[in-house]
Design a protein that fits this description.
The complex is a heterodimer of chains A (267) and B (310). With 267 residues, chain A is of the alpha/beta class. In chain A, 22% of the residues lie in helices and 19% in strands. With 310 residues, chain B is of the alpha/beta class. Chain B folds into two domains: 242 residues, 3-Layer(aba) Sandwich (Glutaconate Coenzyme A-transferase); 35 residues, no CATH class. Helices cover 32% and strands 22% of the residues of chain B. The chains are: A alpha/beta (267), B alpha/beta (310). At the A-B interface, strand 9 and helix 4 of A face helix 4 and helix 5 of B.
């Protein structure tokens, strides 16, 4: 699937490249980002921000603290455990230490996936089906998303599959909590900081959350219609004056294709 | 230089003992119903020679504590019928198998007692065990499904600030099984790379067995004591290529072809309900080989030598 989109360089960005650009444009210099397992779009987005405007960002890469601005081509590895990704490390993050030291995550930004993401910003990696003892579909488990979405300064939900089975009214199980049941004060009642996810980034659009804690389309990717999003989403999409997602600049697209994603995982 | 032997009160000589043993000897005390932890992380550094010994021993009803993110070593233990309770925040192999197929099958069939938890809660539970406490508190988990689907996680109000927290029970481990790069004969173990969560698993265990790529001299360990990650393993087993089919940092990457052979066999069980392909795999690679050397024979020297990091 490609989107007809002319950037300044005259080439066409794919939906995943647009997603990575959305992520990059949101990140600010000085922030801390962990690049997790099996999640090439946030990896590319974090690196794009680091290379284009974030020389003081810390990118956790292969369980190391890495500075990558002077690396001409950042090789892509299929597995988070690939030791070759540790060559740029300035420090190691032993995993138990990484999951015990929470204070520094105030300047952290996290990206969580899910087998279901819901209207109120919750995500589910546990499973699908009414009976937990006999799930229709057993998910992989929540990994570290429950903790990381709470402890980092802010977070986004990201999915590369935008359909009504993934973007649902309510998750069957909640492994990372957003605005819960959507009722006023849900987070406060559960002792959570007031801010849930900032956005949901998909191959079609970006959702954000307004004061009623409900996902609304913030911007449509170039060439995508609101009707398409409505057909592919399992919760109601109200009409509105909706912006177009900012396309990658020529500089960003060049960095993506020639330094970050040479093998074309996002194409 | 002082005599290396010490003279006891009784006049008998006491000598520092080697802890190097075979994989059979290392797991001599393993019995049904025990709690066994397996180190490593997703596609790397699982103590597979020891995992195969667990499976060969025919032990059942284990509580298996995986890594914070475990891989298909847990899937194999489930497939082989060793597991009653599973404590792990993830079972999969990234792109090779997003979800462990035998894990999916057993969980969906209701045959697994699953201790559902987050990675940070996992370390809180290990920390409680290491500190000999009944639980460690953790902030994340309130308002999620974790305390509902896993009632062993309890939400409570803390007595000092009245904050809503989750009590994570101590994850008390009888035997921790780890894989590392090197050790001397006395159980001073050094990892290459970060060692993932192996230190925390070791600290939560009564007994730790480490399989290593190489046994090295005590002098080599002393040349860099800061690198000693496990100071005092109870037993060390020499197993070159012992993490196969998973990666061993500094030695070899994951054998993707072999992992996919397992994934195919286990997925066949998940999709068709027939165990024939899975049992064929388990027999050939996990049950029949009498020891690590015989396993490597079955993989073949050409395949083993083809695995290189650079």
């Amino acid at each position: 699937m490609t989107t007809a989109l002319d950037t300044q360089s005259g080439t066409t960005a794919t939906p995943k490249e647009i997603m990575a650009t959305v992520i990059a444009n949101d990140l600010r210099d000085g922030e801390w980002v962990e690049v997790g397992a099996n999640f090439p779009v946030p990896r590319a987005g974090a690196l794009l921000a680091h290379l284009c405007h974030g020389p003081n960002m810390t990118v956790m890469f292969g369980f190391t603290k890495a500075y990558l601005c002077d690396v001409p081509v950042i090789e892509e590895f299929a597995f988070i455990t690939d030791v070759r990704a540790m060559r740029w490390g300035e420090a190691y993050y032993p995993h138990d230490q990484l999951l015990s030291e929470m204070r520094f995550r105030r300047r952290g930004v996290f990206f969580s996936g899910g087998i279901q993401l819901d209207r109120y910003g919750n995500s589910n990696l546990i499973g699908i089906g009414p009976d937990y003892q006999h799930l229709k579909f057993r998910g992989p488990g929540g990994i570290g998303t429950c903790n990381a979405t709470l402890q980092n300064g802010r977070y986004h939900l990201v999915t590369t599959t935008h359909n009504p089975n993934v973007l649902v009214e309510r998750c069957d199980y909640v492994s990372a909590v957003g605005y819960g049941d959507g009722s006023p004060g849900f987070r406060e009642r559960h002792g959570l900081p007031p801010r849930g996810p900032d956005s949901i980034v998909t191959p079609l659009c970006v959702f954000d959350f307004d004061e009623d804690r409900t996902a609304k389309v913030k911007s449509l990717h170039p060439g995508v219609t609101l009707e398409e999003v409505r057909e592919q989403t399992g919760f109601p999409i109200p009409d509105g004056d909706i912006a177009t997602t900012k396309a990658p600049t020529a500089l960003q697209l060049d960095a993506l294709r020639n330094r970050i994603d040479v093998i074309g995982a996002l194409r | 230089m002082a005599d290396p032997q010490m003279i006891s009160d009784e006049g008998a000589t006491a000598v520092r003992q080697s802890v190097v043993v075979t994989e059979q000897e290392a797991l001599d005390g393993l019995g049904n119903g025990m709690t066994v932890a397996i180190g490593g992380f997703i596609n790397a550094a699982h103590p597979m020679a020891l995992v195969r010994q667990v499976i060969r021993s025919g032990v059942e009803d284990l509580t298996v504590v995986g890594a914070a993110s475990s891989g298909l070593e847990l899937d194999m233990l489930i497939a082989a019928g060793c597991v009653r309770t599973l404590i792990s925040p993830y079972v999969g192999a990234e792109g090779l198998a997003p979800i462990g197929p035998a894990f999916r099958k057993a969980a969906q069939d209701g045959e697994l007692d699953l201790f559902e938890l987050d990675e940070a809660q996992f370390y809180a539970g290990l920390r409680a065990s290491a500190q000999r406490l009944p639980f460690n508190p953790w902030r994340a988990g309130v308002g999620t499904s974790y305390p509902e689907v896993n009632p062993r996680l309890k939400t409570f109000r803390d007595p000092l600030r009245d904050e809503l927290l989750v009590a994570v029970p101590a994850i008390e481990i009888d035997i921790a099984l780890l894989h590392a790069a090197i050790s001397d004969r006395f159980g001073n173990v050094q990892h290459i790379g970060t060692g993932f969560g192996d230190r925390a698993i070791h600290a939560a265990a009564d007994r730790t067995v480490v399989q290593v790529e190489q046994i090295v001299s005590n002098e080599q360990i002393k040349s860099n004591p800061a690198a000693t990650s496990i100071a005092g393993a109870n037993a060390v087993v020499r197993t070159p290529y012992g993490a196969h089919p998973f990666a061993s940092h500094g030695y070899y990457p994951v054998d993707e072809e072999h992992v996919l052979e397992y994934v195919g066999a286990a997925t066949d069980w998940l999709k068709t309900g027939s165990r024939s392909r899975l049992d064929e795999y388990l027999d050939r690679y996990l049950r029949e080989p009498a020891d690590h050397a015989e396993y490597l024979d079955r993989i073949g020297i050409r395949q083993i030598l083809s695995l290189t990091e650079y």
